[in-house]
Amino acid sequence: MDVVHDAAQSRFTATLDGHVAELVYERAGPGVLNLVHTGVPPELQGQGVGDALAAAAFTHAREQGYKVILTCPFLRRWIGSHPEQRDIVLWGKR
Questions:
Q1: Cα separation values, 24 from 3, 87, Å
Q2: How far is CA 31 from CA 62, 67, 69, in A?
Q3: pLDDT in tens, 31-71
Q4: CA 57: distance to chain centroid?
Q5: Quick check: 14 and 21 in contact, CB under 8 A?
Q6: 68 closest CA partner among 47, 84, 86, 89
Q7: Span 3-88: which CATH code?
Q8: 2: nearest Cα among 19, 14, 10, 18
Q9: Cβ pair 19, 12 in contact under 8 A
Q10: Extents of the domains making up the chain
Q11: Per-residue burial over 3-29, b = 16 or more CB atoms within 10 Å of its CB, e = otherwise
């Protein structure tokens, strides 16, 4: 599955079988991204689409030297099973 970074719309998208899933972010200051929302249509749930979006967002943040804030409830759960990603999370921020 291909995940595309749409910087103009501040989101990552994945399209599968004509359905689009997205992870939306906003800039929260210099070097900080607030990961706001992950939306996966019911037709794509259970196929690892949310994981792929999260991985792409974290890869992008690392490559750019950014820290992240996890406002998105999905990502707050996701980070629990991805401890290798916790070093760039700004805890206590919402």
A1: 13, 21
A2: 10, 6, 11
A3: 999 999 999 999 999 999 999 999 999 999 999 999 999 99
A4: 4
A5: yes
A6: 89
A7: 3.40.630.30
A8: 14
A9: no
A10: 3-88
A11: bebeeeeebbbbebeeeebbbbbeebe
Positive or negative: CA dihedral 44, 46, 50, 56: negative
Residue type, 73: P
Q: Residue 10: which pLDDT band, with cuts at 50, 70 and 90?
A: very high
Measured CA distances, 88 to 6, 17, 68, 80, 91 (Å)? 21, 33, 6, 14, 9
Residues 60, 7: Cα–Cα separation, whole Å: 11
**How far from 43 is each of 16, 19, 24, 56, CA to CA, in Å?**
9, 7, 19, 21
Give DSSP secondary structure letters for 42-83.
GGGTTTTHHHHHHHHHHHHHHHHT-EEEE-SHHHHHHGGG-G
pLDDT for the residue numbered 1: 81
